[in-house]
Each structure stands twice: as structure tokens, then as C-alpha cells.
Amino acid sequence: MPKADRSILITSILITGARAPVALHLARLLHEAGHRVILADTPVRPIAAASKACSRYHRLPPPRFEPQAYAEAVEALVRAEGVELVIPTCEEVFHLALAWRGRTMPARLFAPGIELLEQVHNKHSFIRLAERLGLAVPETTLLNSRDDLKAMRARSRDLVFKPVWSRFASHVLLRPTPDFLDAIAPSPATPWVAQRFVEGEEISAYAVARDGRLKALALYRSPYRAGMGAGIFFERVEDEAARELVERIVAGTAWTGQISFDLMREPGGRVLPLECNPRAVSGLHFFRDPARFVDAVFGDGAEVAPDVTAPQTVRLAMWIYGLPAALRSGGLARFRQAMREGEELLDWPGDSAPIGAQWTALAEVARLALRERISLQAASTRDIEWNGPDG
């Protein structure tokens, strides 16, 4: 990638991960800033493909199961469409980084190399990286065997257990009793971590950087989630300690691309890193000014601040996940207020088709979930997940 003080001169851009609302949002920003946007993914009809911002949609092989075919298809697409920049939005970023390492591509990939991506995605090595950069971190122990796990049993009620390679808080055991640990079988091939449970307020961070310089940052919280995992309702927050933490990591890794963090602000104000996702997350929806965002991220503009203040949500997800949770917890009044205050993040002036496309996309995921006997959330990322070099 060019140095941060030079513009990235681009016309045709490929955005991958078209199933994700963030891919749709990024396509809209780039399209309205004057770029030709091509989208690609493995589903038949992802929501972003329905957008007016999408010049063309290409269906790709599933990278997790057919990595060679995926790399060849991406290269052919890039050459056929004259793509100059490829922007990943989901975990396909790992598969793309491998493709870029293994062949000569005519386009730039807006992401670091596979080694750095793996380092920050790994829940143990990320904490060690943050520690080396001088940041305070929660005690985090790597578990490679049942013996490693056994040493944690007496303290299990003070710890959080999670696989090294995972997403959406899948398989997380939050302060479990010792007997719950019997279901875990850590190994060198499927390692886990035991991390000190941190009391406080959770903060999510979405950032874009070029050559270690922060170009965009949104901090937010998610009071409603799909189970324990992905947020479905987002409220902005401001926190200088969180900003400083993100800046330190971005600068210390010379990061180029999108990067996201799960942080915890302790009652005293100290912010600790919990884990990192080297991809786009929902904080992107707090940016709606195409010219300012694109100039900052891909041009010579100064860092862009979020220009949206109202909470952002996907109403369909709130009905599927938020309402049942509110009924169980007795928080129906709070749910109603959230639905009144939250703006539908899929809304965009003159581009209403993606709202209706949700149903087709959901039906495709639901069919996969039924066929594989997995959750909707697991089905939504099954074909692009990255579970380490051997996963």
C-alpha cells in the first residue's frame, strides 16, 4: 500500500463479504463518492447485491472448503473487471491474504499480510501483542491440553474460557463452575484461552487505518445481541482511553485496513483489550458522509469522525433476537424504546431494495442451518470462517 500521505487513486473497487450489512454500507459510501463498486460472496442473493450501489455481483466458491478455487475465481474476477482495490469485510480476509501471498494480483488488498492477521485474530497472541506494546491486559492463559485446563479449575468462577479461533462469542464459558469444564478438550490443534473476567462496561471499536495512522474510528456499545454474540443494536460512546488503546495497536502494527476490538472499561476508567477482529464491524454504520469518509480513508483527508448520533439497528434482527430476550428478562418497555429510537441501518435514500432482500438472504441462511443442523448465526459464516492455518 502507498504511504499514508498519498492518495489511493482508484476507480473500480471489489468489496467481498456481500452478505454483511457493513459490505452494503461500504458499497454505498464508495458508490456515492464516485467509484464503481463490484461485490462478491458465496451466497446466491446477499443483501448488498440488491443495492443500486452494486455495479455487478459475482458468486464465488466457499473459501473455507475450496481455497484454491476461491483464489483462482477472485483473481479471474479482478482481472476481468479491471479491479484496482479489493476490500474484505468478513473473515474471508484471511483467505484473500493467502491468495495475495501465493500469486501475483493486479489489485491491492486493503488488509495486512496473513501473518499479522492471524496474530491479532488469535485470542492469545493478540493479548501478548498488546502487552508488548505497553498496554495493560487481562491475565490470559493459553490452554493446549486437559492438564492446562485442570490447573484452571479452582479459579474457573473468575475466568472466561473461549476457543483461540472463534467469533460471535461462540462456545464461550463465562465464569463457569468447574464441572462445565469437562466439556472442553483443548489441544494444540484446537487451543483455548482462560481470561480473567473483567468487571465493567463493554466497548466495541471499529477503526480504519493506513500505514499505522488512524483514519476513522467509531466507539459504541451493543445492549442487544444475537444470543451472547453479535450485536444487533448499536449506541455510540466516547472514551479517550479506548481511543488511545486503538491508536497504540494501529501504530505498533503499522496497520493498513479495517480492524475492530472488544474492549472493557473498568469502573475506575481503565480500558483493557479483550480480543481483536481484523475486519469490518457495525461501527461503520456511524459514518454516512461518503465524501468525507472516502477522502479520509482512501485519499489525503484528515481522520474522519462519525457523523451519525442516533442508535443504529437491524429491525428484523431485533424482532428475531431482541424481542424474545426482552420477554425473558422483563425488559419489554426498554425494547419498545429502543425500537423507537433506533434507526434502521439498512435504510439509505433512494436505495430501498436491500430492506426487502433481507428475507431472501435470511431464507438462504435458514435452509443451510436446517441442512447442517447448526444455528442461524453459525450458518451465516460457515463457509468463510478462519480457524487458524489448520482449521
Write the layout of secondary structure elements.
Blueprint: E1 12-16, H1 21-32, E2 36-41, E3 56-59, H2 67-81, E4 85-87, H3 92-102, E5 108-109, H4 114-121, H5 125-132, E6 140-143, H6 146-150, E7 159-163, E8 173-174, E9 192-196, E10 201-210, E11 213-225, E12 231-236, H7 240-253, E13 257-265, E14 271-277, H8 290-298, E15 312-313, H9 315-329, H10 332-341, E16 343-344, H11 353-372, H12 376-381
Return the CATH class of the largest domain: Alpha Beta
Rg result: 20 Å
CATH topology title of the largest domain? D-amino Acid Aminotransferase, Chain A, domain 1
Q: What oligomeric arrangement do these chains adopt?
A: single chain
Kindly describe this structure.
The protein has about 400 residues and is α/β, with parallel strands linked by helices. It has three domains: about 5-110 and about 350-390, Rossmann fold, CATH 3.40.50; about 140-195; about 200-345, D-amino Acid Aminotransferase, Chain A, domain 1 (2-Layer Sandwich). About 35% of the residues lie in helices and about 20% in strands. The protein is built from twelve helices and 16 strands. The chain has helices spanning about 20-30, 65-80, 90-100, 115-120, 125-130, 145-150, 240-255, 290-300, 315-330, 330-340, 355-370, 375-380; strands at about 10-15, 35-40, 55-60, 85, 110, 140-145, 160-165, 175, 190-195, 200-210, 215-225, 230-235, 255-265, 270-275, 310-315, 345. The protein has a seven-stranded mixed sheet. It has a five-stranded parallel sheet with strand order 3-2-1-4-5, with helices on both faces. The chain has a four-stranded antiparallel sheet with strand order 6-9-7-8. Strand 10 and strand 11 form a beta hairpin. Helix 2 (about 65-80) crosses helix 3. The model is unreliable at about 1-5 (pLDDT under 50).
